[in-house]
Amino acid sequence: MFKTMSIRTRLILAFSVLLSLLVAVAAVSLQRLDNLTATTQNIVNFQARRALLAQRINQHAQAEAIILLNLLQTTARDERVKLYAALDSEIAASGKAVSDLDMTMLSAQVQGEIDHVSDLRQRYSVLLQETVELIEIEGTASARIYFEDRTHKVLNTLLFDTKSLEEHLQQMMQSELEQLKLAAARARQLVIWLAVAALVIGALLAWFIARGIVMPVRSAVTLARDIASGHYDLDVPQGQRGEIGALLRALRTMRDSIASREAKILRLAYVDPLTNLPNRTRFTELFEARTATDSGALVLLDINRFAPINNALGHAVGDRLLCAVATRILGVVGSDNTVARLWADQYALLLPGADRDSATALMRQVIDAVRAPVPIDGQRLDIEVSTGIALYPQDGQNSTTLLRRAGLALAAAKRRHEVLEFATDWPDGPSPSQLSLIGEMREALQRGEFVIYYQPKLHLATHKITATEALIRWRHPSKGMIPPMQFIPFAEQTGFIRDITPWVLRQVITDAAQWTRDGLVVIASANLSTLDLRCRGLVQDVARMLAESGLPPDRLCLEITESALMDQPDLALQHLNDLSALGLKLSIDDYGTGQSSLAYVKTLPVNELKIDRAFVTAVDVTPKNAAIVRSTLLLCQELGLSVVAEGAETAEELAWLTVNHCDLVQGYVVAKPMPLPEFLSWVEKFNAS
Ligand code: C2E
Ligand code: MG
Ligand code: MG
Questions:
Q1: Is the pTM of this model over 0.85?
Q2: CATH of the domain spanning 448-688, picked from 3.20.20.80, 3.20.20.450, 3.30.450.50, 3.20.20.140
Q3: Residue 3 confidence (pLDDT)
Q4: What residue ranges do the domains of the chain occupy?
Q5: Helix/strand/coil for 536
Q6: Among the atoms of ligand 1, which is closest to the Cα of residue 453?
Q7: Looking at ligand 1, which atom is closest to the CA of residue 492?
């Protein structure tokens, strides 16, 4: 019952009990004190007085005897008269003491003694009177005899009896005093016992109350600590009433709301709200939670050209497409593997235990499943995906490295229009020395460390140099001449190419304008990268530079790689059309490395096609390369495109190209890239021969 009481009730009850105990102790003490006081008063008022009265009676009797003895020896009458007066006053005082003693209420036994003394006193008074009368009548001699015979005996008895009465009364007083002492000691003991009992009861009450309050409060504190450390499945004790019950109920509510809020926060932090897949954070955590010795594959999967789908059909369709892809991936990979959406249209898969072959087999199934047309709003969307696969532990140990490596493989897959690439087959990202180069690029441009080299293009039919390609180099103050492949890809990744290209274009246009003015008829080519083609100000920049330099537009050629046309093809095509409209020439660079077909090239406003070095190298001895180059040459003739063979290094290759009617050759067999002055004198000499 005590447990079910509120703390308030318990405290009130406990203090009430304690107060009652204190009041009881005080009341008993007071009552005992009153009793003791009454007894003391009784002793002071009666016993002492009685003893005193008995003593007085004795003293008066003695005094009377002394006066009588004096009287018996006093012969002179007037002397005796004085003694009579003294005797009278003693008798009167003695009589008063006797009657006073008689008045005090006493026990029957003592009353008997007093009556006896009173009788004796009476008899003694009579004898005394008779002795006095004898003195006056017969003289002191016969009176003395009378005294000796009669009075003296009674006097002795009186003195003796009053003395014993006095002693008796003294004894009575003494015994009362003893009783008083006993009563006081008993009262003291009682009060001590009561105080001790009050103390014990108080202590017990305090202990019970403290226990009744502290125990539930302590368990509430433990519970609060458990909640704070994230254990929400613990039972909160039920059935407590009062304040503790309210506290526990509040804790339970707090626990439930924290748990639900935390679940919500965890969901927000770990789950992609669109697809309900784990997000990047969760994926990274799951990856890092595996045992260090595990092996497996980390795959990045990306929808090709998702942005145009999103833009053309709207974000709602885009979202549903992302969900459909998620469902399809999940349908193939099973529960042992993890699928997450990292961002936008990029998914990540964790395939524990997978090796190169099993990862390839599974990913081919995933790709086939995702490729099947997705019906959305009555439309059937055909999508393609690219995947990059990093294997652990060989490609990296941590998620950052593996995601980066898988990203590089994915980028390679996209570039090569392949569906699947392994990180192992693609070199890692920038090395520390390349990273420091990236940081230095901006300053290098300001300090004028970039230079342009020109590589001639030989027109095979006329055996004249009719064109040249401008190729950038970095003349680094400490690292020497750095070739473009060591910094251009990073300039493209970081966006710094947007600063480099205008500088190259200005340089090339200025140089070409100058040699044109000097009478040299050589078309200058400059390279454009993917980002340049997306840059809105590109066309105006080129037009302005041409106008400022006075270079006829048809003396400038811009080289574009196929992959540059694949990203945002609409914008790229628009810019190509605008550039073509300016009157300058356009060239497809590195032809054959991508997947664009000649039919596709036909739709572009290009004038030239550069066959990649990979097909030109050993073309004279490699039938496969020869077949590709030959068919390309034939088709380009049909389409009216001039063909440049890149990277011819041997006289045999050059001869083969000449026989097969290639238009132009750019390669070491003709000349290596060279600085402008060298190039100009070289061309002059070459064309003159
Ligand atoms: P690219 O546009 O395909 O340029 C041709 C590359 O082939 C040049 O390499 C050239 O030196 C090299 N080459 C020419 N003939 C031969 C040969 O017979 N044998 C061999 N082994 N190589 C030959 P380079 O100068 O190292 O440039 C590499 C790439 O860097 C270029 O390939 C181009 O994509 C890029 N690049 C160079 N300059 C620029 C630039 O100013 N802007 C942009 N965006 N990219 C540039
Ligand atoms: Mg080029
Ligand atoms: Mg090339």
A1: no
A2: 3.20.20.450
A3: 61
A4: 10-205, 280-424, 448-688
A5: coil
A6: 25
A7: 44
Alpha carbon distance 425, 165 (integer Å): 138
Assign domain 10-205 one CATH number from 3.90.550.10, 3.40.50.2000, 2.60.40.3600, 1.20.120.240. 1.20.120.240
Which protein residue's CA is at the shortest distance from atom 23 of ligand 1?
Answer: 647
User: Is 73 buried (19+), middle (13-18) or exposed (0-12) by CB count in 10 A?
Assistant: exposed
Nearest CA to ligand 1 atom 19: 647
Instruction: Write the residue with the smallest CA distance to atom 33 of ligand 1.
Output: 527
Q: Which ligand is nearest to the CA of 484?
A: 1
Fold of 280-424: Alpha-Beta Plaits (3.30.70)
**Protein residues with C-beta less than 5 angstroms from the ion ligand 2:** 527, 559, 589
Ligand 1: atom nearest CA of 471 is 38
Q: Which residue has the CA at smallest separation from atom 21 of ligand 1?
A: 647
User: Which ligand ends up closest to the CA of 500?
Assistant: 1
- Any residues with CB less than 8 A from the CB of 593 and at least 6 apart, and which? 416, 561, 562, 612, 614
* Low-confidence residues of the chain: pLDDT under 70: 1-4, 105-107, 239, 429-432, 566-568, 594-600
Residues ≥6 apart with Cβ < 8 Å to 122: none
User: How do 346-352 and 523-528 pair as beta strands?
Assistant: unpaired
Query: Separation of 527 CA from ligand 1 center, angstroms?
Result: 9
How far is C-alpha 164 from the chain's CA centre?
A: 100
Report the separation in Å between the CA atom of 526 and the middle of ligand 2, taken as the mean of its atom positions: 7
